[in-house]
């Protein structure tokens, strides 16, 4: 079977896992990378590993390949990109989802997450930029030559609406980091357009990830999205024949769900 090939970063759990599995259900070959692996151990008390996600992709009808990769290590990122090229020769979609910015929150720091910025540890900023925005830039830069050769292709960067319009209930570091992700997607779009490589940011709503469900008592989950529901929108977006008309934009998952007739709540 002639499958399209995707690389989803940060895919051991959460939104990344949902996107990877949805792509598998659509018949893709999906490389999924994260730090959590069976042999390497987990970076969190939350469940999930790259091997489990890879198996879920395959079980859904695709071909899943899980690789442990610390996206803060440029050499590991380059090595995995080289492996994708050597073994498959093509890359049609890169999903930038790796995000260390939630680590402290997922570990239970709900009060810290909601504190004013002067009461938050400076390490929170570093996690969001070194383990988030920078990882997206590096992976995109490393993959750009292969994406250009495989075009039409796309880079989808998972962001959040707080990047476009600051929500006073959200933290300063979080708001600035997501704004940086949005600008990264837009700026890359300008340089990749001539090669038919689209670059967009996507805004999930509240998603019922393993991390979010820890704090269910604090949240209204009545209309929350599911990780695979978000993934179904990304899978539809990736094969949209009009994708280049959307390049450079930040797209709400809810709007994409309406565009493609996708259910994102189950």
3D structure, described in words:
The chain is an alpha/beta fold and about 270 residues long. The protein has a single domain, classed as Rossmann fold, CATH 3.40.50.720. It is about 45% helix and about 15% strand. It is built from 10 helices and 7 strands. It has helices at about 15-25, 50-60, 75-90, 105, 110-115, 120-150, 170-190, 210-215, 225-240, 255-260; strands spanning about 5-10, 30-35, 65-70, 95, 155-160, 195-205, 250. The radius of gyration is 17 Å and the shape is globular.
Q: Short summary of the structure?
A:
The protein is α/β, with parallel strands linked by helices. The chain is 45% helix and 14% strand.
Question: Any chance you could write out the topology, listing elements then pairs?
Answer:
Layout: E1 5-9, H1 14-25, E2 29-34, H2 50-59, E3 63-68, H3 74-88, E4 93-96, H4 103-106, H5 110-113, H6 122-150, E5 153-158, H7 172-192, E6 197-203, H8 210-213, H9 227-238, E7 250-252, H10 253-260
Parallel strand pairs: 1-2, 1-4, 2-3, 4-5, 5-6, 6-7
Helix pairs in contact: 1-2, 1-9, 3-6, 6-7, 9-10
């Amino acid at each position: 079977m002639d499958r399209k090939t995707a690389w989803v970063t940060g895919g051991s759990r959460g939104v990344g896992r949902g996107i990877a599995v949805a792509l598998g259900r659509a018949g893709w070959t999906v490389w999924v990378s994260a730090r959590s692996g069976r042999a390497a151990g987990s970076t969190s008390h939350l469940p999930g590993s790259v091997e489990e996600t890879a198996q879920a992709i395959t079980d859904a009808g695709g071909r899943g390949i899980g690789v442990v990769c610390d996206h803060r290590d440029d050499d590991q990122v380059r090595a995995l990109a080289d492996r994708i090229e050597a073994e498959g020769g093509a890359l049609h979609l890169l999903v930038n989802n790796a995000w260390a910015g939630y680590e402290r929150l997922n570990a239970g720091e709900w009060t810290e997450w909601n504190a004013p910025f002067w009461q938050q540890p400076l390490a929170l900023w570093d996690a969001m930029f070194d383990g988030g925005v920078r990882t997206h830039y590096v992976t995109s830069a490393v993959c750009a030559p292969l994406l250009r050769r495989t075009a039409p292709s796309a880079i989808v960067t998972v962001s959040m609406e707080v990047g476009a319009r600051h929500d006073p209930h959200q933290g300063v570091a979080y708001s600035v980091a997501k704004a940086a992700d949005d600008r990264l997607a837009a700026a890359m779009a300008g340089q990749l357009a001539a090669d038919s490589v689209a670059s967009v940011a996507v805004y999930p709503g509240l998603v019922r990830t393993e991390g979010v469900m820890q704090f269910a008592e604090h949240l209204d989950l009545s209309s929350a999205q599911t990780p695979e529901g978000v993934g179904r929108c990304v899978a539809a977006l990736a094969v949209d024949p009009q994708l280049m008309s959307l390049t450079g934009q930040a797209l709400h998952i809810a709007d994409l769900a309406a565009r493609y007739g996708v259910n994102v709540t189950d």
